[in-house]
Amino acid sequence: MKGRAREREGWRRRVSTKTGVRLFVAWVLLAGAATPQARQTAPAFERREFVIHDFRTESGVVLPEARVVYTTLGTLNPAGDNAVLLPSHYMANFNGYNWLIGEANRSEAAGRAGAVDRALDPARDFLVLTELFGNGRSSSPSNTPEPFHGPRFPIVTIRDNVDAVHRLLTQALHVNHLRAIIGFSMGAEQAFQWAVSYPTFMDAIVATSGTAKCYGHGFVRLEGQIAALTADPTWRGGDYTEPPVKGLEAFGMVWAGWLYSQEWWRQELWRTNAATFDQAWQAFRTRFSADANDYILQARTWQRHDVGTTAGFDGNTERALRSIKARVLYMPSETDLYFPVTDARYEQAFIAGVTFTPIPSLWGHTAGAASNPADLKFLNEHTTAFLREAAHPPR
How far apart are CA 382 and CA 208, in angstroms? Predict the structure, then answer.
């Protein structure tokens, strides 16, 4: 038995190392365009793990060990009122919010004209940055041993992720209240779910390029990407012996048509990142190099998101949105094809304490992660002002 345990631990470490390297490369590409912001060197944040034993997912499957990778910046103050949660987006790691964090960019900004002040500062805030299940670092198909390895890993929901992070905060970090939750894309999905599942746990949420439900259009888009990936003959139902390279290439090309807006392509804003049009679109062929089962797991998590299916709301998304007590800064991108601004405008009508501020950008989905200087400035200025007002609401 001891020999088997050592063998399993060795297997975990080998898988974790390989997937971690692939994931970091993937995140640099996924975070939007390779703009000056995205190209900056990532700070060396300390990787930590929170382990939950016998974690029961919403599907009923129990994982013997569920691991949440996270990091923290700053210190929880004596009053316990300076904590901010930043949950990760699709296949990202905890470096996905460097565009919001002052310390992460201090060396870049020092002495430079036009440098943007950041909304968050570890000298003032206690920042908790968490990673979704399925990203290759937290528990995922690629790093979980049998009987849940690969395609046998259970589909987890946004609520499963919120449940796990709630345990991390309250049990390991002794955080019982959050100043704010700030999320981009699937991070925004988590922020909305937090506001419904734990309505008094936070003062405010900030949601960029993400909605409280994945609507039919988004579901079909994700299903198209999954179909492209799994059409590769080497897929073998997810039990591939080598990466389904052609499927990953097709996955990337479907992604290419959705990530940015039509005007982004027509106005040739791709010239920010590539010398020629061929370089711009061909780059998507090799954009995805992480584990294929991980990509699909997180896509399934994304597809199933709906705050209305939270216990007590009987599938009624509007009623769930009306239950939100936290103040909400809702910032959809005006040109997002993943989470259309029309979906966000529909949802905001049911949220009592909402500030609805669409991002005036041609950069599509990536606008919500500051993929260009104008959006970087817009997001930080509006987030800073909102958090300041939320901390001192008018009487």
Answer: 11
CA distances from 312 to 37, 160, 198, 307 (A): 42, 16, 13, 11
In sequence order, what are the beta bridge partners of 214? Answer: none
Cα of 281 vs its chain's centroid, Å: 24
Q: Are 382 and 328 in contact (CB under 8 A)?
A: no
Q: Which residues contact 81 (CB under 8 A, 6 or more apart)?
A: 177, 179
CA torsion, points 338, 380, 353, 328, in degrees to nearest 10? 50
| 84-105 confidence digits (pLDDT tens) | 999 999 999 999 999 999 965 5
Cis peptide before 233 (omega within 30 of 0): no
Residue 392 confidence (pLDDT): 74
DSSP-assigned letter for residue 62? E
pTM above 0.85, yes or no: yes
Cα–Cα dist 66/64, whole Å: 7
Q: Residues 32, 46: contact at Cβ < 8 Å?
A: no
Residue 115, pLDDT above cutoff 90 = no
- Nearest-angstrom CA–CA distance, 71 and 234: 36
End-to-end Cα distance, the chain: 65
Residues 306 and 214: beta-carbon distance below 8 Å = yes
